[in-house]
Write a structure and sequence with these properties.
- The protein is an all-alpha fold.
- The chain is 62% helix and 0% strand.
- It has nine helices and no strands.
- Helix 1 packs parallel to helix 7, helix 3 runs parallel beside helix 5 and helix 3 packs antiparallel against helix 7.
- The termini are far apart.
Length: 174
């Protein structure tokens, strides 16, 4: 359980660092025709996490604004999508993450272990590997959405100052 919570904290940190210097306008840039904007991907992550938590803990997640999930569906071609501001996304993300952590806190380690073992039909030895996969999947899912634009931009592999990757905002301005 602690590994899952730490994984969530890590993905929060990484996502917020990626978004740190981006403006509302940056979130709505379509870098390559047919690619989703960062705003759309953020909304998708928020709506998806809410959906998963509502499956296991109905009523625990905060309500989303009317039409939010449909506006942020990656499957729907929604004309005139209503996208939020960066601050609105961050508030919704934080509220949903708090609900997700509350759902996680409500499960004991023993219950989580039994749930995992029962659903997988596996032995106790699998838990370490499962916890590692959960950590990787959470971070990977967030990074796939937040960093998708980074991979397609010119010089995306080039390092910026101090050996750190350049900020998304500076790359979007190239």
């Amino acid at each position: 359980k602690d590994v899952i919570a730490k994984s969530m904290d890590m993905s929060d940190f990484i996502m917020k660092k990626y978004l740190d210097d981006l403006t509302d306008a940056d979130l709505k840039i379509v870098p390559v025709e047919g690619m989703h904007t960062i705003a759309l991907q953020l909304g998708h992550l928020i709506a998806a996490e809410r959906m998963f938590i509502e499956y296991v803990s109905p009523g625990l997640s905060p309500e989303l604004p009317a039409g939010f999930a449909d506006n942020h569906s990656l499957k729907n071609d929604v004309p005139d999508r209503k996208l939020a501001t960066k601050d609105e996304y961050l508030k919704l993300w934080s509220a949903q993450r708090a609900a997700t952590k509350k759902a996680l806190d409500s499960v004991t380690d023993a219950d989580l272990e039994r749930l995992v073992l029962a659903s997988k039909g596996l032995t106790h030895d699998y838990l370490r590997e499962f916890a590692f996969e959960l950590r990787c999947d959470d971070i990977e899912h967030v990074l796939e959405h937040i960093a998708a634009i980074h991979r397609l931009l010119p010089n995306a592999s080039a390092n910026g100052a101090n050996g750190r990757p350049p900020s998304l905002s500076s790359m979007l301005q190239r």
